[in-house]
Design brief:
Layout (H helix, E strand, L loop, with lengths): L5 E4 L12 E5 L5 H15 L9 E5 L2 H11 L6 E5 H13 L20 E2 L5 H5 L2 H8 L2 H12 L1 E6 L2 E6 L2 H7 L5 H12 L4 E2 H14 L2 H9 L2 E4 L7 H12 L3 E6 L13 H5 L7 E5 L1 E2 L4 H11 L7 E2 L8 E6 L2 H14 L6 E5 L2 H9 L7 H9 L1 H18 L3 H9 L22 H17 L1 H6 L2 H12 L14 H8 L2 H6 L11 E3 H4 L4 E7 L7 H4 L9 H9 L2 E10 L3 H9 L2 E3 L2
Parallel strand pairs: 1-11, 2-10, 2-11, 3-4, 3-9, 5-8, 9-10, 12-13, 14-18, 14-19, 15-16, 15-17, 17-18
Antiparallel strand pairs: 6-7
Helix pairs in contact: 3-9, 6-7, 9-11, 13-26, 16-17, 17-18, 17-19, 18-19
The structure holds adenosine-5'-triphosphate (ATP).
């Protein structure tokens, strides 16, 4: 971005000409989301293009962010649709037009009659082994069989010389495949799901791209339906997404993209910071915001050190003297949170806080307060029985979401228990049961959620097997629905010895609104009065000492996002370190807690 053509604004800026493409780059806490919400209101008030079938699409990255924007809009206007990019494309491209995509034999690539939303891909070795052709391929290669689940779990679509290919995301899985396996194998594997009408989140982008590429008239339909498309967190766009947005923009929709290149942290999902930095549409206006309205001066100084030389030099909006930043050197993970809370208490910081750490593994450790991590439990359950694993995951996820009072999202999750084929037969581990009415499905989902909430305490103490059996006898039976019996086999043996509580504690919730221990990815976009950033690996401290915010890998940016969530107080927990490192901490004005 050439600084000369960039207009500097604050989050109070009101755009007079709402019919102009724009890009806003701003650092953390600048008020990007705050501005976006006001801009939507501005467009609703002043645009002449909007009516009931010509709307504003506001797209953001996660469902939690969608809910946040909906809440903050404080209006119920049919002319605004807030969604994630995946829901937007599923609703407007995949669902209505997927039937157009055919294979070389002229057959529909997806069984669209059975299509019912998009799910997370849970890799299935069973699917491969039950398919004659794929199983034969695997049997030929011993090495492949042992690492199959990891390889399948790592699959994603990526752009390669103008073509989209399905391949593992990480180099180590690519190496594990070597020349053993080609993309055709993966596509055939995916096709097994598509034949059942199951598509995964990542497939939504792939199908949308292909539909819009082949049938350019559909770009016009979408552009006519959405004369305004605004996208928050656009630094995490990927090349497929960027191309789709450009296509729609070229048909006349006003496109506004907002983000911060220094907060791009989804490289592992193909995010391309460059796509955001270089994003340019006809007559696009470029803006920057340089204030930080969230954090104290002390925190902003640390953030500026991490950001280095950049077009954005953040100034502090808040005037008061802030608290010092602390570091806690720990030998035992159990003591960390207590020390953090003691300091908070001393400073009379009694509002919200969050413990943030890079990996899911560290989150589990912090949650269980032992040095053991049981995140393999769910993998085990899935290995023993994929259908029952899915049933349990949907039910407990819905329960945990409902605990955050996000009832609509919880019901949506619970509805996944009642997936049916085109004749209304319940899929998964139900025994010959059918539900044909959508309304009945919803009322069953609500009733099941109520059952889970009412019996939460007793359920937590049960073994997973007892819970499964009681669920059948106490809940499903009253509606004449039956689960398959778990009277023997691998699932029964495992579920007998496992407590529900363990399963729930190790649930990897996709998104949480109120969790006090989160990964950095799940803390993105949020803010808290106090933040404890938990560093598990001592080597990571270098991302703080010698940050490289523009590095190809996300590490420095991850910690930048983590530190920038703090409003009043930031504390960093690190494993015991040597004197030299302590001195470097002091140089950065980070005080030792003891
Ligand atoms: N003009 C304003 N008036 C009052 N409060 C504001 C204004 N702009 C921003 N804020 C507040 O500042 C905080 C940060 O704003 P916001 O979350 O929109 O920043 P952001 O740029 O989206 O941050 P990030 O990229 O770190 O997620 C919020 O609490 C928001 O309500």
């Amino acid at each position: 971005m050439n600084r000369e053509n960039v207009i500097e604004i604050t989050s109070d800026y009101v755009m007079e000409d709402v019919d102009c493409n724009f890009k806003i780059i701003a650092g953390p806490g600048a008020g990007k989301t705050y501005w976006l919400i006001n801009h939507i209101k501005n467009v609703l008030k002043n645009s002449k293009k909007l009516h009931i079938v010509a709307k504003i699409a506001c797209i953001t990255y996660t469902n939690v962010a969608v809910e946040e924007i909906q809440d903050r809009l404080e209006i119920n206007d049919d002319r605004v649709e807030v969604s994630t990019i995946h829901s937007f494309l599923y609703k407007n491209v995949v669902k209505p037009y997927i039937y157009l995509l055919k294979d070389d034999n002229g057959e529909c690539i997806v069984n669209y009659q059975e299509l019912g939303g998009h799910d997370e891909h849970v890799p299935s070795k069973g699917k491969v082994m039950l398919n004659k052709e794929l199983c034969a391929e695997v049997k030929k290669r011993k090495r492949l069989e042992t690492s199959l689940i990891q390889i399948l779990g790592d699959l994603d679509w990526s752009f390669e010389s103008g073509k989209i290919v399905l391949e593992p995301r990480h180099d180590w899985t690519k190496r594990a495949c070597g020349k053993l396996i080609d993309t055709e194998f993966f596509t055939k594997y995916k096709r097994l799901f598509w034949d059942e009408g199951i598509i995964h989140h990542e497939d939504v982008l792939y199908f949308s791209y292909n539909i819009l590429k082949k049938y350019s008239i559909i770009r016009n339909f979408i552009s006519a339906k959405y004369p305004y498309i605004f996208i928050d967190e656009f630094q995490d766009t990927n090349p497929i997404q960027t191309q789709i947005i450009k296509w729609i923009g070229e048909q006349g929709s006003i496109i506004g993209v907002i983000g911060d290149p220094a907060q791009s942290i989804y490289k592992f999902q193909g995010a391309s910071r460059d796509d955001f930095i270089k994003f340019n549409l006809h007559n696009q206006k470029d803006y920057i915001m340089t204030q930080n309205r969230r954090s104290t001066k002390e925190i902003i100084n640390l953030l500026s050190h991490m950001r280095g030389e950049d077009i954005i030099k953040q100034s502090c909006y808040r005037k008061e003297q802030g608290k010092p930043i602390y570091y806690i050197e720990y030998e035992n993970i159990k003591e960390v949170e207590n020390i953090f809370h003691e300091i908070r208490e001393e400073f009379c910081l009694n509002k919200d806080y969050c413990v943030i750490t890079p990996s899911n593994k560290a989150v589990s450790k912090l949650k269980s307060k032992t040095n053991q991590c049981n995140s393999v439990i769910w993998d085990e359950i899935y290995k023993k029985d994929l259908d029952r694993g899915r049933l349990l995951e949907h039910i407990f996820s819905a329960q945990e979401i409902a605990k955050e009072l996000r009832y609509e999202v919880a019901i949506k999750e619970m509805l996944k228990v009642f997936k049916t084929d085109k004749d209304g037969n319940l899929k998964g581990c139900f025994r010959n049961c059918a539900i044909t009415s959508k309304l009945l499905k919803r009322s069953l989902a609500v009733a099941l959620l109520e059952y889970m909430i009412n019996n939460m305490e007793t359920n937590m103490e049960k073994s997973v097997l007892n819970f499964y059996n009681d669920l059948n006898d106490e809940f499903f039976n009253q509606f004449d629905l039956k689960l398959t019996k778990a009277s023997r086999g691998a699932f029964k043996d495992f579920a007998e010895t496992l407590q529900v509580k363990e399963l729930v504690d190790n649930l990897k919730l996709k998104e949480e609104k109120k969790a006090t221990i989160r990964t950095i990815h799940k803390a993105k976009g949020a803010e808290f009065q106090s933040v404890l950033v938990f560093i598990e690996n001592i080597n990571d401290i270098e991302y703080l000492f010698d940050p490289d915010i523009n590095h190809e890998e996300d590490n420095s940016r991850l910690y930048y996002v983590a530190f920038s969530r703090a409003e009043d107080f930031l504390c960093i927990a690190v494993p015991k370190m040597n004197k030299k490192k302590s001195e470097r901490m002091n140089k950065l004005n980070i005080k030792c807690s003891n």
